[in-house]
Fold this sequence. Notes:
Layout: H1 12-36, H2 40-46
Amino acid sequence: MTNGRIWCVVKPTVGLPLFLGSVAAISLIVHFSILSNVEWFAAFMGG
């Protein structure tokens, strides 16, 4: 495995949660920015 050498530098117990946390944070930021910039979302949440 070519990318397996990264675990020689970073422990998997540190790297995997950091990687998954950053993916989740980026996903939340992207979704929030999209939903805050569309006009129908505020009307939908307001009822």
